[in-house]
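# step 3/5: fold
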Amino acid sequence: GAAQEAGIPVVGGNAVQLGYDISPDFFASGTNIFAAVYGDMVLAKTQGSKIAILPCTESAVCAQSVALYKAFTDGLGMEVVYSQAIAASTPDFTAVCQALKDSGAQSYVIVDAVSIVARVSNACVQQGVKAILIESSGAVGPELLTAPGAEGLLAADVDFPFTESSSPATKHYHDVMAQYLTPEELAYPGTNTAWTAFELFGAAVKLIGTGDVTPDSIKNALYSMKDETLGGLAPPLNFVKDQTNLQNCYFVLGIKGGAFVAPNGITPSCAPEEIITPLAKAFLAAAGGG
């Protein structure tokens, strides 16, 4: 892209975007998409070995995600027992929920927007579905707190769970956010990725010291970091020159009792590199990205 051609580093951001997987000039401050899905499957396994996947019909990315979830089933002893594409325009999800219930799935993923996650999960609860929702952190929002179907939800989060204030770095985040955001805005889990991105850039500038801040000096500062967590905000970050930089560790965000919870605090879990790297290469090659 334009940034790579200009030699400008792209620092931070949500690394589920493809650019982070194909360009060495993208420096992710959070988990990559492959490790995040692995994390979701690990969380799903806490409920049992049977999972269902309901991807959206509106985007090809949704359909492709099914293959990504399935890629981890054998290694984790999991089985996708039901998969059905769903359309946001569907007035009634009773049939899908009944099929989900009949499949015996103990957990399920809805690959869609937060509002659809709420609608479908609520419909499924009404049909007696007991399976627990497993979501990507990008599909988790405050509207799920009042959704009966989202009770017990678990999600692999790409950066520190935004509820956390147990370290100086996470407490600082809350102190600053409280000055600038409304209570409604403070309830959004996704604020963690933007904050962590800014903190990563700030840490790189600090490492440069009194020298000139240039694209190269920022890159060299990032290369010098080793297992940098920015005080618990990020998974352990490492960047290598001329290599795509996949960060394979993730955090856990959940919903319990109508509130966001962080079951593991700011302690990350890690997807094995020997599983993620070859899988990422295979998927990117299939997508024409590598």
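# step 4/5: annotate
Strands lie at 10-11, 26-27, 50-55, 79-83, 107-111, 132-136, 154-157, 249-256, 259-261, 269-270.
# step 5/5: archive (pending)
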